[in-house]
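Hello Y.,

Per our agreement to keep a running log of every chain we model this quarter, I'm adding this entry. I've kept the format consistent with earlier entries: sequence first, then predicted structure.
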Amino acid sequence: MDRSKIVAVITGAIALLLGIAYLVMVQLLDFRGEMLPAPVDLSEVDGSQPALVQPASSSSPLSP
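Predicted structure for the entry above:
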């Protein structure tokens, strides 16, 4: 076999290995389950606890 055929076989083998590795990685990531979205409001995590940050009132001593 001449050099160009050896390079072609090695390149094809590397391409197949990368493709199989990609498919395995996708399957492993998909196996983790459903992704949950990030919470929109972080001041109230589960809905039963009051918010830790109180809204600023207009009678604040810092307001002009």
